[in-house]
Give the backbone structure.
Amino acid sequence: QVQLVESGGGLVQPGGSLRLSCAASGFTFSRSWMYWVRQAPGKGLERVSTIDSLGYNSYYVDSVKGRFTISRDNAKNTLYLQMNSLNSEDTAVYYCAKDTGDNGVDYWGEGTLVTVSS
């Protein structure tokens, strides 16, 4: 049974930082590309970042480039998202998601809320 459990969200002031974690189980984590996807209030889903199975390559949506860093620890079956210089537009529920193997998503976590506000 695949499980993805996010943690690390919360309230942070503009300019602050947070580190999200996603604990994965029930599948071979080290063989799966992974995503962080977010949904801001009243908006659709946005794929924020992607990382390949070994962590060698990562990709970001333009709005977070230079501020967010995706990483993974395959020994711990854990995915991370380091978020720096946060602003109000980063306020969203952040989901960890598993790639299907064909650039799609087959499993989602329940999400963790990030609120950027003074």
In short: Residues 10 and 114 are 5 Å apart (CA to CA). The longest strand covers residues 18-25. The mean pLDDT is 97. DSSP finds no helices and eleven strands in the chain.
